[in-house]
């Protein structure tokens, strides 16, 4: 069963495509942020170690992130495959992941690289609005009146979604994560998609590439 990595900058549509892929294949989506929050909530040993960095506003070190991922990949629901979203973020993490998978006698089947120009990404991110009550997300074009169609609350923009912050997030991605494109391309497992197009078009190409 497939072991897939979803790679792309903030705003490229990873969450949307991740949901469709995991539904099609019946595999779990494994995201670093979700794993970290789960371990913090359950106060696991790894969670306690990570908490000291989170509370200090620092990045969780690579070795701790990798330990969290390894523990998650050892769970029963990953036996039939999984989709990694948001990990690895650095070359060090990618190399450690490859080493771990090699020890397990496996490896990634493919890396789906969603690519889009910076201006497209910034427009998408800064055009998102969130309902503070039900947490639903919308595009500005979908809700011109500025209120949640579900519960009527006035929509807001997250600090992370403001244009200036969005540009910074993309810069960090380009510095830390973009080198993974060449890393996986050299391994012959990278499939690139033009994610500046509409979601349905991109998803149809992903489905075709995965044989879904």
What does this structure look like?
With 212 residues, the protein is of the alpha/beta class. It has one domain: 3-Layer(aba) Sandwich (Rossmann fold), CATH 3.40.50.300. It has 9 helices and 7 strands, in the order βαβαααβαβαββααβα. Helix 6 (118-126) packs across helix 7 (163-176). It is globular and about 55 Å long.
Outline:
Helix content is 49%, strand content 14%. It is of the alpha/beta class and 212 residues long.
CATH domain fold name = Rossmann fold
Largest sheet: 5 strands, parallel
CATH class: Alpha Beta
Order of helices and strands: EHEHHHEHEHEEHHEH
The low-confidence runs, each spanning 5 or more residues with pLDDT under 50, are none
Structural class: alpha/beta
Summarize model confidence as the mean pLDDT.
Answer: 89
Figure out the total of helices. Answer: 9
Fraction in beta strands = 5-15%
Can you tell me the CATH architecture? Answer: 3-Layer(aba) Sandwich
Compute the gyration radius: what is it? 18 Å
Number of strands: 7
Mind telling me the CATH superfamily name? P-loop containing nucleotide triphosphate hydrolases
The percent range for helix content is 40-55%
What is the molecular shape?
Answer: globular
Distance between the termini: 12 Å
Number of domains: 1
